[in-house]
Amino acid sequence: MVTRKMPSSLCSYVVKKNEKEFPMKVIAINGSPRQGGNTSILLQRVLAELEKAGIETETLQLGGQLVQGCTACMKCLKAKNKRCANDDDKMNEYIEKMIAADGILLGSPTYFADVSTEIKALIDRAGYVSRVNGGLLRRKVGAAVVAMRRAGSVHAFDTMNHLFTISEMIIPSSSYWNIGVGLKPGDVKDDQEGMETMRILGENMAWLLKKLHQ
Q: Least buried of 11, 123, 148, 165, by fewest C-beta within 10 Å?
């Protein structure tokens, strides 16, 4: 599932690329198989602030997709064509979106103190494609959010941030770690501190993107 949202403001924020103007864009990748669940709610709270700032957003549903992990075939190292050699799933569609975006927002539930298998597959395959092609994610803005029930979320948060740091991306912060607490779908809305953390993250991400593209 793909959801595109144009900025709610009358004037979208644009950047010049090769003397042409393009709206700045952030993609959010939902690594939870629960569409509309707690991870999705956290992501949408961040995106709402970006849209207020005039930044275009797009939500991609990764959780629940049949995607394979990296097989270490090293074919992408030889081809250097900005793609994973495995075309048996939709991973290259996500990689293409990441390369084209100005900002990347990853979201995952906490599974055994780590990210979902789909997010891990994305990290391994997109991260390696980026590295062997000269750093395709370099200086993009990256942020991660985690939905949790009780514990393990900081490890999951770290896992996603490891992709950003090894890819030379720039990470905005918030007033706390980007974590929301909830068990049943929708419970995270009752986590006032978590929702406020998402709001501030979106605000700071928008500020950073604009500073980088002034």
A: 11
